[in-house]
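hey so u asked for the seq, here:
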Amino acid sequence: MSDDSKATIDEFLDVVNMTPKEIESWLDTEESQSVGQKDGDDESIGHKSGKRIVELLQKKKSDYTDDDLSHMKKVISYVHRHTAQKPSSDIEDSRWRYSLKNWGHDPLK
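ran it, structure tokens below
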């Protein structure tokens, strides 16, 4: 595995601060399903990503594919970009937090 791949995996594991079980439980909530951009169907891009993140967290590092690493980079980029847009109001019950949780990151952790 290349150094670049290791760095991507490490950063992915750093920004995703929810466990697979926490993500799965979250994805089952109405709040999770109420946010995010939909791409032609009923499920948002972030919600689909959350399912993929659970799969990635349950995989052995040695089994990661180039497509897996590409998705990890997408998650890293989204979390960094979205956390920079933190609202000034209460975030606990905000769409901002709900979107981040769909991507495996709870800003209140």
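The chain is about 60% helix and 0% strand. Residues 66-83 form the longest helix (18 residues).
lmk if thats what u needed
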